[in-house]
Q: What sequence folds into this?
Protein backbone atom coordinates (compact mmCIF):
# COMPACT_ATOMS: atom_id res chain seq x y z
CA UNK A 1 0.00 0.00 0.00
CA UNK A 2 1.45 3.35 -1.00
CA UNK A 3 1.16 5.95 1.72
CA UNK A 4 2.06 9.51 0.89
CA UNK A 5 1.32 12.86 2.45
CA UNK A 6 -2.12 12.93 1.02
CA UNK A 7 -2.92 9.46 2.20
CA UNK A 8 -1.69 10.50 5.61
CA UNK A 9 -4.34 13.14 5.39
CA UNK A 10 -6.71 10.26 5.03
CA UNK A 11 -5.60 9.06 8.40
CA UNK A 12 -6.53 12.40 9.83
CA UNK A 13 -9.89 12.42 8.08
CA UNK A 14 -10.64 9.45 9.81
CA UNK A 15 -9.33 10.43 13.04
CA UNK A 16 -10.69 13.87 12.50
CA UNK A 17 -13.97 13.85 10.75
CA UNK A 18 -14.97 10.78 12.58
CA UNK A 19 -14.07 8.50 15.40
CA UNK A 20 -15.76 5.23 16.22
CA UNK A 21 -18.80 5.29 18.45
CA UNK A 22 -17.38 4.43 21.84
CA UNK A 23 -20.39 3.30 23.79
CA UNK A 24 -23.88 2.60 22.48
CA UNK A 25 -25.49 0.91 25.46
CA UNK A 26 -24.55 2.51 28.79
CA UNK A 27 -22.42 0.37 31.08
CA UNK A 28 -23.57 -0.80 34.46
CA UNK A 29 -23.10 1.64 37.31
CA UNK A 30 -19.51 1.49 38.52
CA UNK A 31 -18.35 -0.61 35.57
CA UNK A 32 -15.25 0.41 33.65
CA UNK A 33 -14.44 -0.27 30.03
CA UNK A 34 -11.04 0.28 28.44
CA UNK A 35 -10.72 -0.28 24.75
CA UNK A 36 -8.66 0.26 21.65
CA UNK A 37 -10.18 1.15 18.32
CA UNK A 38 -8.93 0.81 14.81
CA UNK A 39 -10.67 3.04 12.36
CA UNK A 40 -10.26 1.82 8.84
CA UNK A 41 -11.33 4.67 6.61
CA UNK A 42 -11.07 3.91 2.98
CA UNK A 43 -8.74 5.83 0.67
CA UNK A 44 -8.32 4.51 -2.85
CA UNK A 45 -8.74 0.75 -2.51
CA UNK A 46 -7.05 0.56 0.85
CA UNK A 47 -8.21 0.88 4.40
CA UNK A 48 -5.97 3.08 6.50
CA UNK A 49 -5.28 2.11 10.08
CA UNK A 50 -6.34 4.81 12.50
CA UNK A 51 -5.62 3.87 16.06
CA UNK A 52 -7.21 5.16 19.22
CA UNK A 53 -7.94 4.21 22.80
CA UNK A 54 -10.65 5.10 25.23
CA UNK A 55 -11.85 4.56 28.76
CA UNK A 56 -15.47 4.64 29.88
CA UNK A 57 -17.20 4.38 33.22
CA UNK A 58 -20.80 3.80 34.11
CA UNK A 59 -21.59 6.64 36.50
CA UNK A 60 -25.18 5.50 36.95
CA UNK A 61 -27.40 2.79 35.58
CA UNK A 62 -28.34 5.03 32.67
CA UNK A 63 -25.26 7.18 32.08
CA UNK A 64 -21.71 6.38 31.01
CA UNK A 65 -18.90 8.88 30.69
CA UNK A 66 -15.97 8.29 28.37
CA UNK A 67 -12.73 9.84 27.23
CA UNK A 68 -10.53 8.90 24.31
CA UNK A 69 -7.36 9.70 22.44
CA UNK A 70 -6.39 9.21 18.80
CA UNK A 71 -2.85 7.90 18.38
CA UNK A 72 -2.77 8.44 14.62
CA UNK A 73 -3.34 12.16 14.99
CA UNK A 74 -0.75 12.18 17.74
CA UNK A 75 1.89 10.66 15.50
CA UNK A 76 1.32 13.46 13.02
CA UNK A 77 1.61 16.17 15.64
CA UNK A 78 -1.96 16.80 16.76
CA UNK A 79 -3.18 15.95 20.22
CA UNK A 80 -6.75 14.77 19.66
CA UNK A 81 -8.78 14.11 22.77
CA UNK A 82 -12.45 13.47 23.20
CA UNK A 83 -14.77 13.32 26.17
CA UNK A 84 -18.45 12.62 26.33
CA UNK A 85 -21.40 10.90 27.91
CA UNK A 86 -23.88 8.32 26.70
CA UNK A 87 -27.29 8.37 28.32
CA UNK A 88 -30.03 5.78 28.04
CA UNK A 89 -33.26 7.38 26.89
CA UNK A 90 -35.47 4.34 26.33
CA UNK A 91 -34.28 0.92 27.55
CA UNK A 92 -34.61 -1.90 25.06
CA UNK A 93 -37.53 -4.23 25.63
CA UNK A 94 -37.58 -7.44 23.68
CA UNK A 95 -37.84 -6.50 20.03
CA UNK A 96 -38.48 -2.90 20.88
CA UNK A 97 -35.21 -1.07 20.31
CA UNK A 98 -33.49 0.88 23.02
CA UNK A 99 -32.55 4.47 22.40
CA UNK A 100 -29.56 6.29 23.82
CA UNK A 101 -28.11 9.67 23.10
CA UNK A 102 -24.61 11.02 23.46
CA UNK A 103 -22.99 14.38 23.79
CA UNK A 104 -19.43 15.47 24.19
CA UNK A 105 -16.59 17.22 22.43
CA UNK A 106 -13.45 16.64 20.43
CA UNK A 107 -10.40 18.82 20.77
CA UNK A 108 -7.29 19.16 18.63
CA UNK A 109 -4.07 20.84 19.66
CA UNK A 110 -1.21 21.30 17.20
CA UNK A 111 2.14 20.63 18.78
CA UNK A 112 3.75 22.87 16.16
CA UNK A 113 2.02 26.18 16.65
CA UNK A 114 -0.45 25.29 19.40
CA UNK A 115 -3.42 25.95 17.15
CA UNK A 116 -6.50 24.67 18.94
CA UNK A 117 -9.86 23.48 17.66
CA UNK A 118 -12.85 22.37 19.66
CA UNK A 119 -15.80 20.50 18.22
CA UNK A 120 -18.88 19.73 20.33
CA UNK A 121 -20.72 16.64 19.18
CA UNK A 122 -24.06 14.96 19.73
CA UNK A 123 -25.48 11.64 18.63
CA UNK A 124 -28.43 9.33 18.80
CA UNK A 125 -28.25 5.51 18.92
CA UNK A 126 -30.94 2.90 18.41
CA UNK A 127 -30.03 -0.64 19.44
CA UNK A 128 -31.34 -4.14 19.82
CA UNK A 129 -29.80 -6.29 22.50
CA UNK A 130 -30.14 -10.03 22.89
CA UNK A 131 -27.82 -11.46 25.52
CA UNK A 132 -24.29 -10.47 24.53
CA UNK A 133 -25.32 -9.36 21.05
CA UNK A 134 -25.93 -5.68 20.38
CA UNK A 135 -26.93 -4.31 16.98
CA UNK A 136 -27.04 -0.57 16.57
CA UNK A 137 -27.58 2.24 14.12
CA UNK A 138 -26.29 5.66 15.07
CA UNK A 139 -26.35 9.21 13.83
CA UNK A 140 -23.86 11.73 15.08
CA UNK A 141 -22.79 15.21 14.22
CA UNK A 142 -19.83 17.34 15.08
CA UNK A 143 -20.41 21.05 15.37
CA UNK A 144 -17.69 23.27 13.95
CA UNK A 145 -17.89 26.56 15.84
CA UNK A 146 -14.82 27.82 13.95
CA UNK A 147 -16.16 27.04 10.48
CA UNK A 148 -15.47 30.64 9.53
CA UNK A 149 -11.75 30.11 10.11
CA UNK A 150 -11.40 27.92 7.02
CA UNK A 151 -9.47 29.36 4.11
CA UNK A 152 -11.65 30.94 1.43
CA UNK A 153 -14.85 30.39 3.41
CA UNK A 154 -15.11 26.66 2.79
CA UNK A 155 -16.29 25.72 6.26
CA UNK A 156 -19.53 24.10 7.34
CA UNK A 157 -21.20 24.27 10.72
CA UNK A 158 -22.10 20.58 10.93
CA UNK A 159 -20.14 17.43 10.12
CA UNK A 160 -22.56 14.51 10.44
CA UNK A 161 -21.91 10.80 10.23
CA UNK A 162 -24.10 7.70 10.18
CA UNK A 163 -23.16 4.21 11.23
CA UNK A 164 -24.38 0.69 11.77
CA UNK A 165 -22.58 -1.70 14.05
CA UNK A 166 -22.46 -4.93 15.96
CA UNK A 167 -21.06 -5.42 19.45
CA UNK A 168 -20.43 -8.61 21.32
CA UNK A 169 -20.45 -7.71 24.97
CA UNK A 170 -19.53 -10.17 27.68
CA UNK A 171 -18.82 -9.46 31.31
CA UNK A 172 -15.07 -9.02 30.78
CA UNK A 173 -14.78 -8.39 27.10
CA UNK A 174 -16.37 -6.53 24.24
CA UNK A 175 -15.70 -6.64 20.49
CA UNK A 176 -17.01 -3.99 18.15
CA UNK A 177 -17.38 -3.60 14.42
CA UNK A 178 -18.98 -0.60 12.81
CA UNK A 179 -19.49 0.69 9.29
CA UNK A 180 -19.56 4.42 9.06
CA UNK A 181 -20.53 6.98 6.45
CA UNK A 182 -18.55 10.15 7.10
CA UNK A 183 -19.67 13.69 6.51
CA UNK A 184 -22.04 13.03 3.60
CA UNK A 185 -22.86 16.72 3.27
CA UNK A 186 -19.74 17.71 1.40
CA UNK A 187 -17.15 16.43 -1.00
CA UNK A 188 -13.99 15.28 0.77
CA UNK A 189 -10.86 15.53 -1.32
CA UNK A 190 -7.30 14.34 -0.92
CA UNK A 191 -5.06 15.35 -3.83
CA UNK A 192 -3.97 12.44 -6.00
CA UNK A 193 -6.09 10.01 -3.98
CA UNK A 194 -9.70 8.87 -4.19
CA UNK A 195 -11.97 8.85 -1.18
CA UNK A 196 -14.78 6.39 -1.86
CA UNK A 197 -17.94 8.35 -1.25
CA UNK A 198 -21.67 7.89 -0.86
CA UNK A 199 -23.68 9.42 -3.67
CA UNK A 200 -20.72 11.64 -4.48
CA UNK A 201 -20.23 13.00 -0.99
CA UNK A 202 -18.28 12.28 2.19
CA UNK A 203 -16.21 9.21 2.96
CA UNK A 204 -16.72 5.83 4.55
CA UNK A 205 -14.91 3.26 6.55
CA UNK A 206 -14.98 0.23 8.78
CA UNK A 207 -14.13 0.63 12.44
CA UNK A 208 -13.06 -2.16 14.76
CA UNK A 209 -12.62 -2.20 18.50
CA UNK A 210 -11.89 -4.46 21.42
CA UNK A 211 -12.38 -3.57 25.06
CA UNK A 212 -12.03 -4.99 28.54
CA UNK A 213 -14.82 -4.56 31.06
CA UNK A 214 -14.15 -4.64 34.77
CA UNK B 1 -11.61 15.41 34.98
CA UNK B 2 -8.97 13.01 36.27
CA UNK B 3 -9.48 10.89 33.16
CA UNK B 4 -9.09 13.91 30.91
CA UNK B 5 -5.93 14.97 32.68
CA UNK B 6 -4.47 11.48 32.39
CA UNK B 7 -5.23 11.41 28.67
CA UNK B 8 -3.63 14.80 28.17
CA UNK B 9 -0.44 13.74 29.91
CA UNK B 10 -0.39 10.48 27.97
CA UNK B 11 -0.80 12.30 24.70
CA UNK B 12 2.03 14.71 25.39
CA UNK B 13 4.31 11.84 26.36
CA UNK B 14 3.40 9.67 23.42
CA UNK B 15 3.26 12.20 20.64
CA UNK B 16 6.25 12.04 18.34
CA UNK B 17 5.24 14.82 16.02
CA UNK B 18 6.05 13.23 12.70
CA UNK B 19 5.87 15.80 9.95
CA UNK B 20 4.26 14.51 6.80
CA UNK B 21 5.50 17.32 4.58
CA UNK B 22 8.37 15.18 3.28
CA UNK B 23 5.90 12.47 2.37
CA UNK B 24 3.92 14.97 0.38
CA UNK B 25 6.43 14.74 -2.43
CA UNK B 26 6.00 11.79 -4.74
CA UNK B 27 9.55 11.73 -6.09
CA UNK B 28 10.97 8.49 -7.44
CA UNK B 29 13.51 7.08 -9.84
CA UNK B 30 14.48 8.84 -13.01
CA UNK B 31 16.31 7.53 -16.06
CA UNK B 32 16.68 10.77 -18.02
CA UNK B 33 16.60 9.02 -21.37
CA UNK B 34 15.65 12.17 -23.23
CA UNK B 35 15.45 11.18 -26.89
CA UNK B 36 13.25 12.03 -29.85
CA UNK B 37 12.16 8.42 -30.16
CA UNK B 38 9.86 8.94 -27.17
CA UNK B 39 8.22 12.04 -28.66
CA UNK B 40 5.52 12.61 -31.25
CA UNK B 41 7.19 13.87 -34.45
CA UNK B 42 5.79 17.38 -34.07
CA UNK B 43 7.61 17.71 -30.74
CA UNK B 44 10.99 16.45 -31.83
CA UNK B 45 13.91 18.54 -30.67
CA UNK B 46 17.40 19.15 -31.96
CA UNK B 47 19.22 16.50 -29.94
CA UNK B 48 22.37 18.62 -29.93
CA UNK B 49 20.41 21.10 -27.83
CA UNK B 50 19.59 18.65 -25.04
CA UNK B 51 21.69 19.47 -22.00
CA UNK B 52 21.51 17.58 -18.74
CA UNK B 53 23.02 19.60 -15.92
CA UNK B 54 23.35 19.41 -12.18
CA UNK B 55 23.58 22.09 -9.53
CA UNK B 56 24.46 22.22 -5.88
CA UNK B 57 21.48 22.99 -3.65
CA UNK B 58 22.60 23.15 -0.04
CA UNK B 59 24.18 19.72 0.48
CA UNK B 60 22.26 18.10 -2.33
CA UNK B 61 22.55 17.86 -6.09
CA UNK B 62 19.66 18.92 -8.25
CA UNK B 63 19.46 17.66 -11.84
CA UNK B 64 18.01 19.76 -14.60
CA UNK B 65 17.32 19.59 -18.28
CA UNK B 66 17.95 22.52 -20.61
CA UNK B 67 16.71 22.55 -24.19
CA UNK B 68 18.32 25.22 -26.33
CA UNK B 69 21.62 26.95 -26.91
CA UNK B 70 23.32 27.58 -23.60
CA UNK B 71 25.35 30.33 -25.21
CA UNK B 72 22.10 32.17 -25.99
CA UNK B 73 20.66 32.18 -22.47
CA UNK B 74 21.92 35.74 -22.26
CA UNK B 75 19.70 36.76 -25.18
CA UNK B 76 16.86 34.21 -25.44
CA UNK B 77 13.56 34.17 -23.60
CA UNK B 78 13.72 31.22 -21.22
CA UNK B 79 10.77 29.18 -19.93
CA UNK B 80 11.47 27.71 -16.51
CA UNK B 81 9.04 24.86 -15.92
CA UNK B 82 8.36 23.71 -12.35
CA UNK B 83 6.85 20.29 -12.78
CA UNK B 84 4.09 18.48 -10.94
CA UNK B 85 4.11 15.68 -8.41
CA UNK B 86 5.42 12.79 -10.51
CA UNK B 87 8.54 10.68 -10.00
CA UNK B 88 10.91 12.69 -12.13
CA UNK B 89 11.46 14.84 -15.20
CA UNK B 90 11.03 11.66 -17.24
CA UNK B 91 7.28 12.05 -16.93
CA UNK B 92 7.53 15.57 -18.41
CA UNK B 93 9.71 14.88 -21.41
CA UNK B 94 6.71 15.24 -23.74
CA UNK B 95 5.88 18.56 -22.06
CA UNK B 96 9.47 19.63 -22.61
CA UNK B 97 9.17 18.74 -26.29
CA UNK B 98 6.02 20.82 -26.54
CA UNK B 99 7.70 23.84 -24.95
CA UNK B 100 10.75 23.42 -27.17
CA UNK B 101 8.46 23.79 -30.17
CA UNK B 102 6.29 26.56 -28.82
CA UNK B 103 6.29 29.36 -31.39
CA UNK B 104 8.67 27.35 -33.58
CA UNK B 105 11.53 24.93 -33.09
CA UNK B 106 13.63 26.06 -30.14
CA UNK B 107 12.09 29.50 -30.33
CA UNK B 108 12.38 29.70 -26.53
CA UNK B 109 14.96 28.19 -24.25
CA UNK B 110 13.41 25.68 -21.87
CA UNK B 111 14.55 24.45 -18.51
CA UNK B 112 13.07 22.11 -15.93
CA UNK B 113 14.58 20.37 -12.95
CA UNK B 114 13.91 17.67 -10.44
CA UNK B 115 13.33 18.77 -6.88
CA UNK B 116 15.32 16.95 -4.23
CA UNK B 117 14.26 13.34 -4.02
CA UNK B 118 12.82 13.38 -7.53
CA UNK B 119 14.65 11.47 -10.26
CA UNK B 120 18.40 11.58 -9.73
CA UNK B 121 18.32 14.66 -7.51
CA UNK B 122 19.67 13.70 -4.14
CA UNK B 123 18.19 14.24 -0.69
CA UNK B 124 14.54 14.80 0.11
CA UNK B 125 12.19 17.66 -0.50
CA UNK B 126 10.80 18.69 2.84
CA UNK B 127 8.89 21.89 2.28
CA UNK B 128 9.27 25.57 1.61
CA UNK B 129 12.98 25.82 2.36
CA UNK B 130 14.11 22.91 0.20
CA UNK B 131 11.83 23.98 -2.65
CA UNK B 132 13.19 27.53 -2.49
CA UNK B 133 16.80 26.37 -2.35
CA UNK B 134 16.38 24.11 -5.38
CA UNK B 135 14.70 26.89 -7.33
CA UNK B 136 17.45 29.29 -6.35
CA UNK B 137 20.18 26.88 -7.44
CA UNK B 138 18.71 26.66 -10.93
CA UNK B 139 17.85 30.34 -11.30
CA UNK B 140 21.26 31.39 -10.06
CA UNK B 141 22.79 29.41 -12.90
CA UNK B 142 20.50 31.05 -15.44
CA UNK B 143 21.36 34.42 -13.97
CA UNK B 144 25.06 33.66 -14.24
CA UNK B 145 24.50 32.95 -17.94
CA UNK B 146 22.97 36.37 -18.43
CA UNK B 147 19.23 35.76 -18.06
CA UNK B 148 17.32 38.82 -16.94
CA UNK B 149 13.82 39.39 -15.62
CA UNK B 150 12.37 40.62 -18.92
CA UNK B 151 13.20 37.30 -20.61
CA UNK B 152 12.16 34.88 -17.87
CA UNK B 153 8.82 33.03 -17.97
CA UNK B 154 8.05 30.75 -15.02
CA UNK B 155 5.46 28.00 -15.38
CA UNK B 156 4.31 26.38 -12.14
CA UNK B 157 2.29 23.24 -12.75
CA UNK B 158 0.36 21.71 -9.85
CA UNK B 159 3.04 20.91 -7.23
CA UNK B 160 5.30 23.34 -9.08
CA UNK B 161 2.96 26.12 -8.02
CA UNK B 162 4.24 25.65 -4.48
CA UNK B 163 7.70 26.69 -5.61
CA UNK B 164 6.51 29.25 -8.15
CA UNK B 165 4.31 31.13 -5.66
CA UNK B 166 6.99 32.20 -3.18
CA UNK B 167 9.44 32.82 -6.03
CA UNK B 168 6.97 35.17 -7.71
CA UNK B 169 6.31 36.91 -4.41
CA UNK B 170 9.89 38.14 -4.21
CA UNK B 171 11.85 34.95 -3.62
CA UNK B 172 13.52 34.80 -7.01
CA UNK B 173 16.98 36.24 -7.60
CA UNK B 174 15.71 37.09 -11.07
CA UNK B 175 12.43 38.88 -10.38
CA UNK B 176 9.55 37.13 -12.11
CA UNK B 177 7.41 39.24 -14.38
CA UNK B 178 5.61 36.52 -16.33
CA UNK B 179 4.07 33.65 -14.43
CA UNK B 180 1.85 30.81 -15.64
CA UNK B 181 0.03 28.86 -12.94
CA UNK B 182 -1.34 25.62 -14.36
CA UNK B 183 -3.78 23.77 -12.06
CA UNK B 184 -2.22 25.30 -8.95
CA UNK B 185 -2.94 24.41 -5.36
CA UNK B 186 -4.06 27.19 -3.03
CA UNK B 187 -3.06 26.80 0.61
CA UNK B 188 -1.91 24.02 2.89
CA UNK B 189 -4.92 24.70 5.08
CA UNK B 190 -7.28 24.12 2.16
CA UNK B 191 -5.83 20.68 1.55
CA UNK B 192 -6.32 19.80 5.21
CA UNK B 193 -9.81 21.27 5.31
CA UNK B 194 -10.95 19.64 2.09
CA UNK B 195 -9.72 16.30 3.41
CA UNK B 196 -11.39 16.53 6.79
CA UNK B 197 -14.39 18.77 6.21
CA UNK B 198 -13.40 20.65 9.35
CA UNK B 199 -11.70 23.94 10.17
CA UNK B 200 -8.44 22.20 11.05
CA UNK B 201 -5.27 24.10 10.10
CA UNK B 202 -2.47 22.32 8.27
CA UNK B 203 -0.23 22.74 11.31
CA UNK B 204 -2.00 19.72 12.79
CA UNK B 205 0.07 17.51 10.51
CA UNK B 206 2.78 19.56 8.85
CA UNK B 207 4.97 22.61 9.23
CA UNK B 208 4.75 23.30 5.48
CA UNK B 209 2.30 26.19 5.45
CA UNK B 210 2.25 27.31 1.87
CA UNK B 211 -0.19 30.06 0.94
CA UNK B 212 -0.28 30.73 -2.77
CA UNK B 213 -3.10 33.24 -2.37
CA UNK B 214 -0.82 35.38 -0.25
CA UNK B 215 1.98 34.86 -2.78
CA UNK B 216 -0.28 36.14 -5.55
CA UNK B 217 -1.22 39.14 -3.47
CA UNK B 218 2.48 39.93 -3.15
CA UNK B 219 3.31 39.26 -6.80
CA UNK B 220 3.44 42.38 -8.94
CA UNK B 221 4.03 40.87 -12.38
CA UNK B 222 1.80 39.30 -15.03
CA UNK B 223 -0.20 36.15 -14.33
CA UNK B 224 -1.88 33.55 -16.49
CA UNK B 225 -3.99 31.06 -14.54
CA UNK B 226 -5.11 27.85 -16.30
CA UNK B 227 -7.48 25.38 -14.66
CA UNK B 228 -10.14 22.75 -15.32
CA UNK B 229 -13.52 22.92 -13.63
CA UNK B 230 -13.43 19.20 -12.74
CA UNK B 231 -9.99 19.24 -11.16
CA UNK B 232 -10.14 16.91 -8.15
CA UNK B 233 -6.48 17.36 -7.21
CA UNK B 234 -6.49 21.13 -7.01
CA UNK B 235 -10.15 22.14 -6.61
CA UNK B 236 -11.02 25.07 -8.80
CA UNK B 237 -13.00 26.99 -6.17
CA UNK B 238 -10.03 27.49 -3.90
CA UNK B 239 -7.49 27.84 -6.69
CA UNK B 240 -9.65 30.57 -8.17
CA UNK B 241 -9.87 32.36 -4.85
CA UNK B 242 -6.09 32.22 -4.51
CA UNK B 243 -5.37 33.36 -8.06
CA UNK B 244 -7.85 36.21 -7.90
CA UNK B 245 -5.88 37.68 -5.05
CA UNK B 246 -3.34 38.60 -7.67
CA UNK B 247 -2.65 42.26 -7.52
CA UNK B 248 -0.12 42.61 -10.29
CA UNK B 249 0.16 44.35 -13.60
CA UNK B 250 -1.84 41.93 -15.76
CA UNK B 251 -4.18 39.04 -15.05
CA UNK B 252 -5.55 36.44 -17.44
CA UNK B 253 -7.44 33.26 -16.71
CA UNK B 254 -8.22 30.29 -18.90
CA UNK B 255 -10.79 28.02 -17.29
CA UNK B 256 -12.05 24.94 -19.11
CA UNK B 257 -15.40 23.27 -18.46
CA UNK B 258 -15.06 19.56 -17.84
CA UNK B 259 -11.28 19.51 -17.78
CA UNK B 260 -9.53 17.69 -14.96
CA UNK B 261 -6.10 18.02 -13.39
CA UNK B 262 -4.35 16.78 -16.50
CA UNK B 263 -5.37 20.00 -18.15
CA UNK B 264 -3.19 19.85 -21.24
CA UNK B 265 -4.35 16.33 -22.06
CA UNK B 266 -7.97 17.35 -21.65
CA UNK B 267 -7.91 20.53 -23.70
CA UNK B 268 -5.34 19.42 -26.23
CA UNK B 269 -1.87 20.66 -27.03
CA UNK B 270 -3.10 23.11 -29.64
CA UNK B 271 -5.35 25.09 -27.33
CA UNK B 272 -2.89 24.88 -24.48
CA UNK B 273 0.00 26.10 -26.62
CA UNK B 274 -2.02 28.94 -28.07
CA UNK B 275 -3.03 30.30 -24.67
CA UNK B 276 0.47 30.05 -23.23
CA UNK B 277 2.09 31.54 -26.32
CA UNK B 278 -0.37 34.44 -26.45
CA UNK B 279 0.39 35.18 -22.81
CA UNK B 280 4.14 35.09 -23.30
CA UNK B 281 3.87 37.42 -26.25
CA UNK B 282 1.40 39.70 -24.52
A:
Amino acid sequence: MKINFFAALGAVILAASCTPTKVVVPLQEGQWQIGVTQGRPQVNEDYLPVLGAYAAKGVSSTKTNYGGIQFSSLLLGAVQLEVGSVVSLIPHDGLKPGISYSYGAQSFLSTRDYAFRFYPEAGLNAYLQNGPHILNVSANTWVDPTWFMTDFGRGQLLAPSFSAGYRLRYKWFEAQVEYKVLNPTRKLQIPQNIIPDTFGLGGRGMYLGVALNF
Amino acid sequence: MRLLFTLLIASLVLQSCADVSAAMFAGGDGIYDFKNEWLEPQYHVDETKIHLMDFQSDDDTVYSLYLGDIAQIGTDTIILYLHGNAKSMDQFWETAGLFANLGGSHHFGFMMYDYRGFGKSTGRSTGEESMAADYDAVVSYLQSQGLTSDRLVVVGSSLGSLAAGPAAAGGSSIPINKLVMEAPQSTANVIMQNATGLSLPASMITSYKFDIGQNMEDYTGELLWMHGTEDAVAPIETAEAAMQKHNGSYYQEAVYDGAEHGLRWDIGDEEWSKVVLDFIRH
In short: Residues 5-17 of chain A form the longest helix (13 residues). Chain A has one domain: 5-213.
